[in-house]
Design brief:
Helix content is about 65%, strand content about 5%. By secondary structure, it is mainly alpha-helical. The longest helix has about 40 residues.
Length: about 425
């Protein structure tokens, strides 16, 4: 019966993750004017839609021409809703993967952490997803009926479609997954009594090295997030660009590389502008995708690191080795992929035709060095950890010594002392 519950919870959780991913890729997320299908990020049935254009491109271009048009407000709301949903769904996906890892460890009888950790990741998984879904609906005001709007100044109505329905259904399914897990598992989870002892390295306590590793890890996180958000990424032909946008490449400031690519390549697919915007758009997409994987691995690595700092045993030792190594590999590859695709160069004097890097890529490069320090320190101390059996032998020896000492004190006690202890 317990195995049946285990498989049921595991299958439901895998279904939750599958629905999260399928909702992103749905080409029929919503509908406008009864016949135009929208994905989460763009219009799939709009006429004369330029290549790689999304709601941001449509909103900024439409509002630049006439901010009173109903479509201007529509595309702005769709862009805000899709962006908020994307961020919150990434948080939900991250929590669901942490929940999945813990559940697999529990089924395979590996140390899986205390009950509060299961409750934390599962509840946050649901909160992020429900909040993301509600946020999207609050921005778009999506409903069941969406009549054709003939007045150009009136914002077109948005109707629910496959993607949004999947998102709503997944809210209910996630709640059911959590309830079933609580009923079948939560009472049976016990804290693992085994633990590790940190050995010294170069005459310094292993615990100090681990805290140092944690500091380097958080510096790495700051550098990673900084590289994603800083505006000063590149400079070329007198223009300043971030990872995703260009300051003055268009009449609309800070237009995304994807939007610029769509416009330039629509005019002339062989033009220098088209080729430049295309490679910068692809470079940012590759970097963002690999950094997203790195952030997921970072969360798994930090979990292993913080648990090990507490001297507790968690999960599988091979995975504890694999997480930091894979994190470092993906972080390095993300930086290399951006440089290889964008053909960026490190040069203070930027000539015509060159894509010269500024603060953003330098932060990305620096994150690899701080991450290397964190990973190396963790792996060294983790490799040198005391085996569980040795730790228990030391505990048993200490307990025996403590017991013998207590018995000796009792045997030497005077009658008055004995009377005092009884009282």
């Amino acid at each position: 019966m317990k195995l049946l519950f285990s498989l049921s919870v595991l299958i439901l959780l895998l279904l939750n993750i599958s629905l999260l991913i399928s909702a992103f890729s749905s080409t029929k997320w919503s509908t406008i004017n009864s016949n135009k299908n929208l994905s989460l990020f763009s219009c799939t049935d709009c006429e004369q839609l330029q290549d790689n254009w999304n709601f941001e491109c449509l909103a900024r271009t439409t509002c630049e021409n006439d901010s009173k048009l109903g479509e201007c407000n529509l595309y702005k709301d769709l862009y805000k809703g899709s962006f908020a949903f994307l961020v919150l769904e990434f948080g939900s996906l991250l929590m669901s993967l942490l929940f999945l890892e813990k559940l697999i460890f529990l089924i395979l009888k590996f140390p899986s952490g205390p009950r509060v950790s299961f409750l934390g990741v599962s509840i946050f998984m649901l909160i992020f997803h429900v909040t993301g879904t509600i946020t999207w609906f609050s921005y778009t005001n999506a409903g069941i009926n969406c009549p054709i709007e003939k007045n150009n100044n009136t914002r077109p109505s948005v109707c629910m479609n496959t993607g949004s329905n999947i998102s709503i259904a997944n809210c209910i399914l996630m709640g059911g997954t959590i309830i079933l897990f609580i009923i079948s598992y939560l009472k049976t989870i016990t804290s693992d009594s085994s633990f590790y002892i940190h050995k010294k390295f170069i005459w310094i306590s292993g615990t100090i090295w681990l805290w140092t590793s944690l500091v380097f890890a958080f510096i790495t996180l700051i550098l990673m997030l900084g590289s994603l958000t800083v505006k000063n990424w590149i400079k070329f032909q007198g223009s300043l660009g971030s990872l995703f946008r260009c300051d003055n490449c268009d009449s609309v400031q800070w237009m995304s590389w994807s939007c610029l690519q769509g416009t330039a390549c629509e005019i002339n697919n062989d033009s220098n502008d088209c080729k430049l915007y295309r490679k910068l758009a692809h470079a940012s997409d590759y970097f963002l995708s690999l950094q997203s994987l790195s952030l997921i691995l970072f969360a798994l690595y930090i979990q292993s690191l913080t648990v090990f700092i507490k001297c507790k045993v968690y999960g599988n030792k091979y995975l504890n080795y694999a997480y930091p190594i894979l994190l470092f590999i993906f972080n390095v590859i993300s930086t290399i992929s951006w440089f290889a695709t964008s053909e960026g160069i490190v040069n203070e004097e930027c000539t015509d035709g060159d894509v010269c890097v500024r603060s953003g890529p330098k932060l990305a490069i620096a994150s690899n060095f701080t991450l290397l320090m964190s990973v190396c320190l963790f792996l060294i101390i983790y490799y040198r950890r005391n085996e569980e059996s040795l730790a228990f032998e030391e505990i048993d020896a200490k307990m025996k010594t403590s017991t013998n000492a207590s018995q000796a004190k009792i045997s030497k006690a005077t009658p008055d002392d004995t009377q005092y202890m009884k009282n």
